[in-house]
Specification:
The protein has twelve helices and twelve strands. It has 329 residues and is an alpha/beta fold. The strands form two sheets. A six-stranded parallel beta sheet has the order 2-1-3-4-5-11, sandwiched between helices. A six-stranded mixed beta sheet has the order 7-6-8-9-10-12, with helices on both faces.
């Protein structure tokens, strides 16, 4: 650390702060320190030092998800762990709660525990701070959301293509007044779904009947949908952009004067299946499994260019998107 400090013309304390992602450090200073870390091959305290032991049976990986209470991420983590266990590796899991500051702290903690690799679902808007970890030998794969300016593998679902698939299905049923109910496009997955929704309608020469991106939970989705359906010119179909709001949208449709309003949701859930909601499903276990397999390929010495894997979605008709309503009707 002293050598890095001397080369970058800063104090040892400043180097430590850069390594641990402290705020209030100028971009110039941070850039100089990170450049010297890479040039000198410095490995901060807690990083693996020396050559990787080739006689070790197993090691450890970390998985950082957005919300561990979400069944989607629980299934993804389970799939990663299945691959990891098969390689006799331990898996440590943490949730960021969609908080970038907490995410950075957790990733630092993972690295300081000398984990071999990380699978990351990131809520952060920038990932340059992870470069020193890569340079120090930690392997990283992003899942569900892509990295920004970071040369690592990632595994994503076709969010835009899936939303477009839902719109095509509704257009095929004769709907032209289609509304979007979802959460903030500040989240990559939501932004991609909204992009696909708009693009497919535009290709058909149509505009969205309405777009609401303030349905943060089921209760909010109920209020938004009830308002849409109470309007004089109500939509005949609704696309819900995530499984957590399906119950609210379905209840509002069932309680409205137009219970035949079509509904298609992105992503499957037990509730959607129970309510007979047509969905565009993504294979979350394949997403987690692919991310883990890419990570272990890197740990095994794979040195190819970073790969971007986009998994397809599948339309699952159950009635709500085909004019038969939900089981609440």
């Amino acid at each position: 650390m002293r050598d890095v400090a001397m080369a970058a013309s800063v104090s040892v304390k400043t180097v430590s702060r850069v390594v641990h992602n402290y705020p209030f450090i100028s971009d110039d200073v941070r850039g100089r320190v990170q450049a010297e870390i890479r040039r000198l091959g410095f490995r901060p305290n807690g990083y693996a030092v020396g050559l990787r032991r080739t006689d070790r049976i197993g090691g450890g990986i970390g998985v950082l998800a957005a919300d561990l209470a979400d069944p989607f991420y629980a299934a993804m983590v389970s799939a990663v762990e299945e691959v990891s266990t098969g390689r006799s590796f331990t898996t440590l899991v943490a949730g960021s709660g969609e908080d970038p500051a907490r995410e950075r702290a957790l990733l630092t903690s993972f690295v300081e525990r000398r984990l071999d690799g990380l699978v990351v679902v990131s809520a952060d808007r920038a990932h340059d701070h992870l470069r020193p970890y890569l340079d120090a030998g930690t392997r990283i794969v992003f899942a569900d959301r892509p990295p920004r300016r970071l040369p690592v593998d990632c595994v994503l679902a076709g969010h835009a293509a899936g939303a477009a698939q839902a719109v095509r299905h509704l257009l095929g049923q004769g709907h032209t007044a289609i509304a979007y109910v979802g959460h903030s496009p500040a989240v990559h997955t939501a932004a991609e779904r909204l992009r696909g929704f708009r693009a497919e309608l535009g290709a058909a020469g149509l505009e969205p009947h309405a777009v609401h991106t303030d349905a943060i939970d089921s209760a909010a989705a109920f209020r938004v949908t009830a308002g849409l359906l109470a309007a004089g010119a109500a939509p005949t179909a609704i696309f819900a952009d995530n499984p957590r709001i399906v119950g609210g949208v379905a209840r509002a449709i069932a309680a409205s004067r137009a219970p035949e309003t079509a509904l298609v949701a992105f992503d499957d859930s037990e509730l959607a299946e129970a309510l007979g909601v047509t969905v565009v499903a993504q294979d979350v276990r394949e997403l987690g499994g692919q991310a883990a397999r890419l990570l272990f390929a890197r740990l095994d010495g794979e040195r190819s260019r970073p790969r971007r894997v986009v998994l397809p979605t599948t339309l699952v008709p159950r009635g709500s998107g085909e004019g038969r309503g939900t089981t609440l009707r």
